[in-house]
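User: Hey, my collaborator sent me this sequence without any context and asked if I could get a structure. I don't really work with proteins. Can you help?
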Amino acid sequence: MLAEDSVLLREGLIGLLNRCGHEVVAAVGDAGALLAAVAEHGPDIVVTDVRMPPGFQDEGLHAAVRLREQRPTLPVLVLSQYVQRAYAAELLDSGDGTGVGYLLKDRVGQVEEFVDALGEVADGGTVVDPEVVRQLLRRRRDPLERLTPREREVLALVAEGRSNGAIARALVVSDAAVGKHIGSILTKLDLPPADETHRRVLAVLAYLRA
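Assistant: No problem. I've predicted the 3D structure and written it out in C-alpha coordinate form, which is a compact way to encode the shape of the chain:
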Protein backbone atom coordinates (compact mmCIF):
# COMPACT_ATOMS: atom_id res chain seq x y z
CA MET A 1 0.00 0.00 0.00
CA LEU A 2 1.58 3.26 -1.16
CA ALA A 3 0.59 6.81 -0.16
CA GLU A 4 2.44 9.63 -1.95
CA ASP A 5 0.92 12.88 -3.26
CA SER A 6 3.56 13.48 -5.95
CA VAL A 7 2.27 11.70 -9.06
CA LEU A 8 5.71 11.25 -10.60
CA LEU A 9 7.26 9.89 -7.44
CA ARG A 10 4.27 7.66 -6.79
CA GLU A 11 4.43 6.14 -10.27
CA GLY A 12 8.19 5.74 -9.96
CA LEU A 13 7.84 3.88 -6.67
CA ILE A 14 5.16 1.63 -8.12
CA GLY A 15 7.48 0.66 -10.97
CA LEU A 16 10.41 0.14 -8.61
CA LEU A 17 8.42 -2.03 -6.20
CA ASN A 18 6.96 -4.09 -9.02
CA ARG A 19 10.44 -4.71 -10.47
CA CYS A 20 11.61 -5.88 -7.06
CA GLY A 21 8.83 -8.45 -6.82
CA HIS A 22 6.35 -6.57 -4.66
CA GLU A 23 2.68 -6.09 -5.51
CA VAL A 24 1.29 -2.58 -4.99
CA VAL A 25 -2.35 -3.28 -4.16
CA ALA A 26 -3.23 0.43 -4.13
CA ALA A 27 -1.51 3.79 -4.52
CA VAL A 28 -3.17 6.97 -3.26
CA GLY A 29 -2.38 10.65 -2.93
CA ASP A 30 -3.94 11.74 0.37
CA ALA A 31 -4.34 10.54 3.94
CA GLY A 32 -8.09 9.94 3.76
CA ALA A 33 -7.66 7.67 0.76
CA LEU A 34 -4.84 5.88 2.59
CA LEU A 35 -7.08 4.96 5.53
CA ALA A 36 -9.86 3.81 3.21
CA ALA A 37 -7.53 1.76 0.99
CA VAL A 38 -5.92 -0.01 3.95
CA ALA A 39 -9.37 -0.95 5.25
CA GLU A 40 -10.31 -2.27 1.80
CA HIS A 41 -7.14 -4.13 0.84
CA GLY A 42 -5.55 -5.18 4.15
CA PRO A 43 -1.96 -4.78 2.87
CA ASP A 44 1.12 -6.49 4.29
CA ILE A 45 2.94 -3.15 4.62
CA VAL A 46 2.20 0.56 4.18
CA VAL A 47 4.68 3.04 2.67
CA THR A 48 3.62 6.64 3.21
CA ASP A 49 4.82 10.19 2.85
CA VAL A 50 4.33 12.68 5.70
CA ARG A 51 2.97 15.85 4.11
CA MET A 52 -0.07 15.27 1.93
CA PRO A 53 -3.34 17.02 1.03
CA PRO A 54 -5.30 18.84 2.16
CA GLY A 55 -3.02 20.71 4.57
CA PHE A 56 0.43 19.42 3.57
CA GLN A 57 1.42 19.31 7.26
CA ASP A 58 1.55 15.85 8.84
CA GLU A 59 -1.52 14.12 7.39
CA GLY A 60 0.34 11.03 6.15
CA LEU A 61 2.19 10.48 9.41
CA HIS A 62 -0.95 11.08 11.47
CA ALA A 63 -2.76 8.51 9.34
CA ALA A 64 0.08 6.04 9.93
CA VAL A 65 -0.25 6.49 13.68
CA ARG A 66 -4.01 5.87 13.43
CA LEU A 67 -3.41 2.73 11.40
CA ARG A 68 -1.00 1.41 14.01
CA GLU A 69 -3.56 2.12 16.71
CA GLN A 70 -6.11 0.05 14.78
CA ARG A 71 -3.64 -2.67 13.76
CA PRO A 72 -0.55 -2.55 16.02
CA THR A 73 1.21 -5.23 13.98
CA LEU A 74 0.71 -3.51 10.61
CA PRO A 75 4.20 -2.71 9.24
CA VAL A 76 4.56 0.96 8.28
CA LEU A 77 7.49 2.61 6.51
CA VAL A 78 7.50 6.41 6.37
CA LEU A 79 9.41 7.83 3.41
CA SER A 80 9.61 11.60 3.57
CA GLN A 81 11.73 14.69 3.10
CA TYR A 82 10.89 15.87 6.62
CA VAL A 83 11.18 14.78 10.23
CA GLN A 84 7.81 15.52 11.80
CA ARG A 85 9.00 15.06 15.34
CA ALA A 86 5.75 14.90 17.32
CA TYR A 87 4.09 12.12 15.35
CA ALA A 88 7.39 10.45 14.48
CA ALA A 89 7.97 9.68 18.15
CA GLU A 90 4.40 8.47 18.51
CA LEU A 91 4.71 6.20 15.46
CA LEU A 92 7.98 4.67 16.63
CA ASP A 93 6.44 4.03 20.04
CA SER A 94 3.30 2.42 18.56
CA GLY A 95 2.51 -1.25 18.86
CA ASP A 96 5.48 -3.00 20.39
CA GLY A 97 7.95 -0.84 18.49
CA THR A 98 8.49 -3.40 15.73
CA GLY A 99 7.55 -3.37 12.07
CA VAL A 100 8.11 0.35 11.68
CA GLY A 101 10.52 2.57 9.79
CA TYR A 102 11.25 6.22 9.02
CA LEU A 103 13.55 7.08 6.10
CA LEU A 104 14.41 10.47 4.60
CA LYS A 105 14.10 10.56 0.81
CA ASP A 106 17.19 12.68 0.24
CA ARG A 107 19.36 10.36 2.37
CA VAL A 108 18.49 7.10 0.61
CA GLY A 109 21.65 6.64 -1.44
CA GLN A 110 20.81 3.43 -3.30
CA VAL A 111 17.70 1.63 -4.46
CA GLU A 112 18.88 -1.51 -2.68
CA GLU A 113 18.98 0.42 0.60
CA PHE A 114 15.30 1.29 0.30
CA VAL A 115 14.30 -2.20 -0.81
CA ASP A 116 16.23 -3.79 2.07
CA ALA A 117 14.60 -1.41 4.55
CA LEU A 118 11.17 -2.26 3.15
CA GLY A 119 11.82 -5.97 3.58
CA GLU A 120 13.15 -5.52 7.10
CA VAL A 121 10.12 -3.52 8.22
CA ALA A 122 7.76 -6.00 6.56
CA ASP A 123 9.46 -8.78 8.53
CA GLY A 124 8.88 -6.93 11.81
CA GLY A 125 12.15 -5.04 12.05
CA THR A 126 12.73 -1.37 12.83
CA VAL A 127 14.61 0.93 10.45
CA VAL A 128 15.17 4.58 11.37
CA ASP A 129 17.40 7.10 9.61
CA PRO A 130 20.12 8.41 12.00
CA GLU A 131 19.01 11.98 11.28
CA VAL A 132 15.51 11.12 12.52
CA VAL A 133 17.04 9.71 15.70
CA ARG A 134 19.14 12.84 16.18
CA GLN A 135 16.16 15.17 15.86
CA LEU A 136 14.01 13.06 18.17
CA LEU A 137 16.75 13.08 20.81
CA ARG A 138 17.02 16.85 20.48
CA ARG A 139 13.26 17.09 21.05
CA ARG A 140 13.58 15.21 24.34
CA ARG A 141 15.91 17.85 25.77
CA ASP A 142 14.60 20.95 27.50
CA PRO A 143 13.01 22.96 24.66
CA LEU A 144 13.76 26.19 26.53
CA GLU A 145 17.51 25.67 26.68
CA ARG A 146 18.00 27.70 23.51
CA LEU A 147 16.25 30.76 24.97
CA THR A 148 18.16 33.69 26.49
CA PRO A 149 17.33 34.71 30.08
CA ARG A 150 15.32 37.68 28.74
CA GLU A 151 13.38 35.44 26.36
CA ARG A 152 12.56 33.10 29.23
CA GLU A 153 11.32 36.10 31.20
CA VAL A 154 9.12 37.20 28.32
CA LEU A 155 7.74 33.69 27.86
CA ALA A 156 6.94 33.45 31.57
CA LEU A 157 4.87 36.63 31.28
CA VAL A 158 3.15 35.30 28.15
CA ALA A 159 2.25 32.20 30.16
CA GLU A 160 0.59 34.49 32.71
CA GLY A 161 -1.71 35.66 29.93
CA ARG A 162 -0.23 39.13 29.54
CA SER A 163 -0.44 41.06 26.30
CA ASN A 164 2.61 42.45 24.51
CA GLY A 165 1.83 45.89 25.91
CA ALA A 166 1.56 44.58 29.46
CA ILE A 167 4.85 42.70 29.07
CA ALA A 168 6.52 45.86 27.73
CA ARG A 169 5.37 47.85 30.74
CA ALA A 170 6.48 45.13 33.19
CA LEU A 171 9.96 44.92 31.67
CA VAL A 172 10.21 48.65 30.86
CA VAL A 173 10.90 48.03 27.18
CA SER A 174 9.12 48.96 23.96
CA ASP A 175 6.29 46.96 22.41
CA ALA A 176 8.54 46.40 19.40
CA ALA A 177 11.21 44.85 21.62
CA VAL A 178 8.65 42.47 23.10
CA GLY A 179 7.46 41.51 19.63
CA LYS A 180 11.05 40.81 18.59
CA HIS A 181 11.61 38.62 21.65
CA ILE A 182 8.42 36.65 21.01
CA GLY A 183 9.38 36.11 17.36
CA SER A 184 12.75 34.78 18.46
CA ILE A 185 11.09 32.50 21.03
CA LEU A 186 8.76 31.00 18.44
CA THR A 187 11.67 30.41 16.06
CA LYS A 188 13.83 28.75 18.72
CA LEU A 189 10.93 26.52 19.80
CA ASP A 190 10.49 25.33 16.19
CA LEU A 191 7.01 26.83 15.87
CA PRO A 192 6.70 28.02 12.25
CA PRO A 193 3.58 29.90 11.08
CA ALA A 194 0.60 27.59 10.52
CA ASP A 195 -3.08 28.25 9.88
CA GLU A 196 -4.30 25.44 12.12
CA THR A 197 -2.31 26.22 15.28
CA HIS A 198 -1.88 29.17 17.66
CA ARG A 199 1.86 29.48 18.12
CA ARG A 200 1.65 31.61 21.24
CA VAL A 201 -0.41 28.92 22.97
CA LEU A 202 2.02 26.20 21.84
CA ALA A 203 4.92 28.23 23.24
CA VAL A 204 3.14 28.49 26.60
CA LEU A 205 2.52 24.74 26.61
CA ALA A 206 6.23 24.13 25.95
CA TYR A 207 7.06 26.45 28.84
CA LEU A 208 4.66 24.68 31.20
CA ARG A 209 5.95 21.23 30.24
CA ALA A 210 9.56 22.32 30.81
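In plain terms: The chain has ten helices and six strands. You can pass these C-alpha coordinates on to your collaborator as they are.
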